[in-house]
Amino acid sequence: MEKSPEMPQDILRCIFATLEIPDLVRAGSVCSSWHAEYTSLCNTGNYRLQQTPCLLYTSESTDAREAGLYSLAENKAYTLILPDPPIRSRYIIGSSFGWIITADERSELHLLNPITCEQIALPSVTTIEQVKPIYDDEGSVCNYEYLWYTGEDVISDTPSVFPLSELRDFLFYKAFLSSDPSMGSYFVVLIHNPHSQLSFARAGDNNLTWLPPCSYYEDCLFKGGLLYASTTIGEIHTFNLDAPAVTQKVFLDKMKHIYFERIYIVQSTCGDLLQIWRSNAPSCGEEEGESDSDLELDFDRDSHVSCTTKINVHKVEPTSRKILEINSLNQNVLFIGHNQTICLHAEDYPQLKANHVYFTDDNYLYTTDFKNNRRDIGIFDLENNSSEEITTPQLWSNWPTPVWLTPNPRRLNFGTLCS
Predict the structure, then answer these.
(1) 158: burial class by Cβ within 10 Å (0-12, 13-18, 19+)?
(2) F-box domain: from which residue to which, for each copy (predicted)?
(3) Does 192 score more than 80 pLDDT?
């Protein structure tokens, strides 16, 4: 590196502490003393904590180990070079605290920080209650047996057998972290099939622990030392994962009888618990005057698109245990999708649009059945119920599905980010 430009270290430190991650990385490449200061900031956590979420994606036009990072703060795309297994070969099932949760071609789970390139292997998929390994004559796992039961019901007495790479298509829905793994202690929680059940593990565990009996979970939130899990009918259950025997408590009874919308939960910037309902409808690019029967005859899987048509936000009233629909987020901004749901205040993030929802595609059936089709990604205006594109033309491949990532530079691996 070149010789350091003359600047007092305390001033340099103050400047660095205000930067978004892409700018911080570029500043750290100027010279050895700047790199040392930037490394120190990352290791101590004294960088700017209010990082603007970015869109993490892959592209067929790049190497299989490369991921794109689209910065909403700069309206600019960057390239990340990630460690094996190649990111394009993985499924992305979660994003929390700057780490993504991925399933590789053996359906095994990993935590990956795309900024630092650090990885953590999670307990084997065969420790999930409904998954058993099948061994070949040499003692290697060659297939998985998948058992069709929940804590409440036996769906089928006949197990399924899946090749190693195909189990992930049927098993995983979403994953969440309780805290930043780079800080040491954390929980990882999975929503998995059959019927969207819960399992969890602590940092360092060798096995995933099943949380029966309930099913049909949609989203999770860690708050006040408890796991809050919302179901497809609006129930919210709480779990104390630190307890010697984990039990479920009902925080909110069911809010609807029919499963239609996807449901998210998040804590607002003022501390309220919000429940978000997202409606989707198929859009096959029909022309004006085209009838439903015409569409059925001409249906083309490659042109089928699922689109977000409505987003409703409700405030959870803890005393009455009811929900109240609110007309506006005011200065709040939401990020929903396969990420852990995020609520930010637009005054702290001037590049973001207040009273808007930034969304990516997490429709399990649509994304797994139509992997090559256009993803449902955009910015939803809650005032007029309309959507707009994040950027045009589209930068990302349709699979694996792009996800929101809040960059976390702790122990940053210098030199992996380039514009």
Answers:
(1) exposed
(2) 7-36
(3) yes
Residues 391 and 69: beta-carbon distance below 8 Å: no
Residue 68, class by beta-carbon neighbours within 10 Å (0-12 exposed, 13-18 middle, 19+ buried)? buried
CB-based burial label for 97 (10 Å; 0-12, 13-18, 19+): buried
Least confident of 227-241, 281-295, 357-371, 387-401: 281-295
CB atoms within 10 A of CB 65: 16
The side-by-side arrangement of strands in the sheet containing 99-103 is: 91-96, 99-103, 109-112, 119-121
- Check: CB of residue 147 under 8 Å from CB of residue 155: no
Which pLDDT score is estimated for 6? 63
- Residue-wise pLDDT for 134-150, tens only, equals 999 999 999 999 999 99
For residue 378, CA distances in Å to 294, 308, 338, 356, 375 come to 29, 9, 14, 10, 9
Alpha helices in 280-376 (DSSP H): 292-298, 364-369
More confident of the two residues 47 and 298: 47
The residue among 20, 19, 90 whose CA lies nearest residue 57 is: 90
β-sheet with 322-326: strand ranges across: 262-267, 273-283, 305-317, 322-326
* Token reading at 220: 């999770």
> Would the pLDDT of 183 be above 70?
yes
CA–CA dist 199, 207 (Å, integer): 10
**Residue 396: strand, helix, or coil:** coil
Whole-number Å distance between alpha carbons of 247 and 73: 42
**What distance in Å separates the CA atoms of residue 107 and residue 38, rounded to the nearest whole number?**
36
Nearest-angstrom CA–CA distance, 408 and 97 = 7
Average pLDDT (336-351) is: 95
Distance of CA 194 to the CA centre of its chain: 20
Rounded average pLDDT over 52-62: 94
Q: Element (H or E) spanning 22, and its range?
A: helix 21-28
Q: Please, what's the b/e burial string for 7-27 (b: 16 or more CB within 10 A of its CB; e: otherwise)?
A: eeeeebeeebeebbbbbbbbb
Is the CB of residue 194 less than 8 Å from the CB of residue 171? no
* Cα angle 31-36-38, degrees, rounded to a multiple of 5: 95
SS3 137: coil
Instruction: Give, as one character, the DSSP assignment of residue 113.
Output: -
What pLDDT, in 10s, does the model give residues 65-115? 999 999 999 999 999 999 999 999 999 999 999 999 999 999 999 999 998
